[in-house]
Specification:
Blueprint lengths: L14 H9 L5 H5 L4 H11 L9 H21 L4 E5 L2 E4 L2 H21 L7 H16 L16 E2 L2 E2 H13 L7 H10 L5 H14 L11 H8 L6 H6 L3 E2 L6 E4 L8 E8 L2 E9 L10 H9 L3 E2 L4 E2 L4 H7 L7 E11 L5 E12 L2 E4 H5 L5 H13 L9 E7 L3 E7 L3 H24 L5 E3 L5 H13 L18 H13 L27 H18 L4 H14 L4 E3 L23 H14 L8 H35 L5 E10 L2 E5 L7 E5 L9 E3 L5 E4 L8 E5 L3 E9 L6 E5 L1
Parallel strand pairs: 5-12, 6-13
Antiparallel strand pairs: 1-2, 3-4, 7-8, 8-11, 9-10, 11-12, 14-15, 16-17, 18-19, 18-24, 19-20, 21-22, 22-23, 24-25
Helix pairs in contact: 3-4, 6-8, 7-8, 9-22, 15-16, 17-20, 19-20
């Protein structure tokens, strides 16, 4: 729906002139109603016109005339003019009366649009049909009959395009200057209260569905919902008779956000005469969702739940997600439980898995646990594990807007606290233990993999820091994997450099090769991973001593250095968590990879064949990674749209924002300087006449000097910059800024 390009100077044959020439020869009513082909019109003109074919011979003249007529016929199919498209490459000549009516309607529409440009959106009787039209244009539905020039021609007559003129009206009334019309149409619909914030988010999702860019339906198939509703509640006695472990005596609790409904994990720290045991219980979704069932096919297609400001697009039906598989307090639930036996130094000395029946005693919010001494043991254990970890620690605030009703909007910035970090630590440990269990057993898994930073990106960041005279340099990432010695690593590096295998058999190695399990053979060596993580941690520590602008440059650089985590049938380890084996297991209600891991674990416990083979796992890992990326993009987009709705009604329209990115032609700014809200500013906003450019490292915005003078620095990465809102795109979440 972008703005049209300028018309070409070569406009082709004039339909109106041809109509006058052609119809001036008519002598009967039949000729007005007849459907004509290009050849028939050419023959008619040649027969009835008295003028000779100029200097051309008859054959050349007829060919040129037919070509012009074919072009007129082609254009009449899509654009209203003096000829009417009749189908099968034929046209008829419009009557003079019809043309007068059309021309009058164009004049009426032009006058109305000119009048509306000066009128506010107060008299809805005047605006209703246009507001409806703007909404239809946004979601690509058919315009009402009220929006047309004439019943015979629809929306276009010669150079007048009613649809385009209505879009231009929206652009003028909104005051926005985006290159596309969608932001203006959306702004007008929201300002006129024709669309609420809830309407806006729903219609954006619908638009994405129509454009095959949203694979997450808002509702479930009725048959699956009905099937799920008929599932019986858990019968603990029957479940125990099927040889499930009875763990109902344990004091399991769930600890989640206060608005959580799908409780898929519970924890219990048991102290007994032989020591301590940490139990982590995860909802047994695989008991209800059997492989290759209709429900499984739907869950697999979605692959993840999507959490949006106004709703959750669930992977599973409500009856399962919020009821049967939700570990609600004081009702028996089926669970897969990981038992971890601890020694006095908080090491896990043994672990095992159970199909069990549990009875959660309390559903707690994170805040409920912070000042409650009953959970001190859990906090101390988590703290001890965190102290022993060498992992990446780059955190930003999470902006969480929520829609209540149609238009009520609340916004919170969530930062990790002691309770969220505790549960995260226990879930990471559980995922790691399950990954090791199944990896050693030879199961195919959708490993959650996080690659080390790329060498090129590390070198670029080091050059950037050096240019800023920051004495922080990150080590070059190494490619050494487990089981390789230094000679193997050197051979791999030389081979990659030379583009061929290098024979280093003549070199001797003093290292004794370590045999590793197959599932660890492609995982980065521990010393290589530790070296990179140590370098990142040292960089963070050094950055904390810098002034705020430089510290943000380092933080942003480290954050952007990280590769995207993915699911993969080949295990390469998880760099960010510094783990050899990591498989998502703890959220099967909302993630399909976790459900896959549950099924493989059940197969191991029952000593049955694996549910999945390697070929299936390759396809499923790619699918789940793709769906996860799409879900994240949807979440980011709708959060940005919601924040823009908030900004539209905010009294604060000016910020002292942090410059967090410089990339031609944009300056990227963090409005609150907390990572929660971002906008962009075009270089032309600073000056349309000066020759501005960004340096090679993306550190400074410079103005080219005149008469041989040196460049002057206008803006630097990391500095604070006063700005204001220039354009709010409510349709896709963009935020354009300008200097104050």
């Amino acid at each position: 729906m972008g703005r049209p390009k300028k018309a070409s100077s070569n406009r082709g044959p004039d339909a109106e002139r041809m109509w006058r020439r052609f119809t001036s020869l008519f002598t009967s009513k039949d000729e007005w109603s007849k459907c004509w082909t290009a050849d028939e019109i050419a023959d008619y003109l040649i027969k009835h016109e008295s003028r000779p074919p100029s200097r051309e011979d008859s054959k050349a003249y007829r060919k040129r005339l037919t070509t012009d007529l074919q072009e007129i016929i082609s254009k009449s199919r899509k654009h209203g003019d003096h000829f009417k498209w009749e189908g099968n490459n034929t046209i008829s000549a419009r009557s003079q009366e019809s043309i007068v009516e059309i021309e009058q309607s164009v004049a009426d529409w032009s006058a109305r649009l000119s009048r509306l440009k000066k009128q506010p959106l107060t008299n809805l009787d005047e605006w209703n049909d246009i507001l409806d039209a703007w909404g239809s244009m946004l979601v690509n539905t058919t315009l009402s009959d009220a929006i047309q020039i004439h019943p015979e021609i629809g929306l276009k007559w010669k150079k007048f395009d009613l649809k385009l003129e209505l879009k231009r009206l929206a652009a003028r009334k909104s005051g926005l200057r985006f290159p596309e019309f969608e932001p203006a149409l959306t702004m007008m619909l929201v300002n006129a209260k024709r669309w609420s914030i809830l309407d806006l988010l729903k219609r954006r999702l619908e638009w994405r569905r129509k454009n095959n860019d949203n694979p997450f339906p808002a509702t479930y198939e009725t048959s699956l919902e009905q099937w799920a509703e008929q599932l019986p509640d858990v019968d603990a006695a029957s479940a125990l008779a099927e040889k499930r472990s009875d763990l109902q005596h344990l004091h399991f609790v769930t600890i989640d956000p206060p608005d959580a409904k799908d409780f898929d994990d519970a924890v219990c720290l048991e102290e007994h005469e032989n020591g301590r045991t940490l139990w982590v219980a995860i909802a047994d979704v695989a008991h209800y969702v059997t492989k290759d069932s209709s429900l499984d096919a739907t869950a697999q297609a979605r692959a993840t739940s999507v959490y949006l400001p106004h709703a959750v697009l669930p992977m599973l039906p409500f009856r399962l997600a919020d009821d049967l598989c939700s570990l609600r307090a004081n009702v028996p639930r089926l669970a897969m439980v990981i038992e971890m036996t601890l020694d006095d130094d908080n090491n896990v000395i043994s672990s095992s898995a159970h199909e069990a029946v549990i009875l959660v005693k309390e559903n707690l919010a994170y805040e409920d646990t912070l000042e409650d001494v009953r959970w001190d043991g859990l906090f101390k254990l988590a703290d001890a594990w965190q102290q022993d970890e060498l992992r990446l620690n780059i955190k930003q605030g999470e902006q969480r807007p929520r829609i209540h009703g149609e238009n009520e909007l609340t916004i919170e910035v969530k930062w990790p606290n002691k309770a969220t970090e505790m549960i995260e630590t226990f879930m990471v440990k559980t995922n790691n233990i399950v990954g090791e269990m199944l990896g050693k057993a030879g199961a195919a898994l959708p490993w959650r993999c996080h690659p080390m930073p790329d060498s090129t990106d590390v070198r670029d960041l080091n050059k950037q820091l050096e240019a800023l005279e920051i004495s922080i340099q990150l080590p070059e990432p190494r490619t050494k994997s487990k089981g390789q010695d230094d000679t193997d690593e050197l051979a791999g590096l030389l081979g990659a450099w030379a583009g061929q295998d290098i024979d280093l058999s003549g070199l001797s190695s003093t290292e004794e090769k370590t045999e590793v399990d197959d599932y660890l053979s492609n995982v980065s060596a521990q010393d290589a991973r530790d070296e990179m993580l140590d370098g990142l941690r040292l960089a963070q520590e050094q950055a904390s001593a810098l002034r705020s602008s430089l510290r943000r440059v380092v933080d942003q650089g480290l954050f952007q250095l990280m590769n995207r985590a993915r699911y993969d049938a080949v295990n390469i380890g998880h760099f960010g968590l510094n783990l050899d084996a990591y498989a998502h297991f703890t959220s099967p209600i909302r993630r399909y990879p976790d459900l896959i891991v549950h099924r493989q674990l059940k197969a191991m416990l029952h000593q049955k064949d694996w549910v999945y083979d390697e070929d299936e796992m390759i396809a499923l890992s790619e699918h789940c990674s793709q769906q996860g990326r799409m879900a994240q993009l949807l979440e980011w987009e709708l959060v940005a749209m919601t924040l823009n709705c908030h900004l539209m009604n905010s009294e604060n329209q000016q910020w002292n924002a942090r410059v967090v990115g410089l990339k031609t032609p944009w300056i990227f700014l963090d409005l609150n300087d907390d990572g929660s809200m971002h906008g962009r500013m075009h270089l032309k906003q600073l000056s349309a006449k000066k020759n501005l450019f960004i340096d090679d490292f993306g550190l400074s915005l410079l103005e080219e000097g005149r008469d041989g003078q040196d460049e002057s620095v206008l803006l630097e990465l990391g500095q604070l910059f006063p700005c204001r809102i220039r354009g709010l795109d409510l349709w896709s979440g963009r935020l354009d800024l300008a200097p104050i």
